[in-house]
Amino acid sequence: MRVIKVIHVHLIFEKLDYYFGSLSAIFEILDEKTVGIKESTLFHSNLADGKSIPTRRAIIRQSHLIRAKRKDSTGPAQTDHRVHNVFSGAGAALVAGFSGMMDKQDGHPSAA
């Protein structure tokens, strides 16, 4: 299991939610007036997991995103190759048949 820190900013009046990976990322997108707190004040607020900081304009929460471990893969699945090979052969036959039909409609003899 992998855990990733997430900062959730809920803008009260705009009714918008933003999710950031760090405190400094908040102020790259939103300004201090929109968030309702100065960047330096937020950095010194000791925001911790599960803790919320309400301002006049926003609610800022820190939490974690929980992800499953990556499965070890050494490349594309075998079925992908088989499906590609089946459609490659069928596609080539279809194109050959279609061009033969088009030649007959134009009055040209078919090359096949």
* Sheet of most strands: 4 strands, antiparallel
The average pLDDT is 78
Instruction: Work out the helix count.
Output: 4
In terms of DSSP E residues, the strand content is: 25-35%
Radius of gyration: 29 Å
The shape is elongated
Instruction: Report helical residue fraction.
Output: 25-40%
**Which stretches are low in confidence, meaning pLDDT under 50 for 5 or more residues running?**
79-96
Structural class: alpha+beta
Termini separation (Å)?
58 Å
Order of helices and strands: EEHHHEEH
Please tell me about this protein's structure.
By secondary structure, the protein is of the alpha+beta class. It has helices at 23-29, 32-35, 39-43, 78-105; strands at 2-11, 16-20, 52-54, 58-67. Strands 2-1-4-3 form a four-stranded antiparallel β-sheet, with helices on one face.
Write a short abstract of this structure.
This protein is an alpha+beta fold and 112 residues long.
Question: Which SSEs are present, and which pair or pack?
Answer:
Blueprint: E1 2-11, E2 16-20, H1 23-29, H2 32-35, H3 39-43, E3 52-54, E4 58-67, H4 78-105
Antiparallel strand pairs: 1-2, 1-4, 3-4
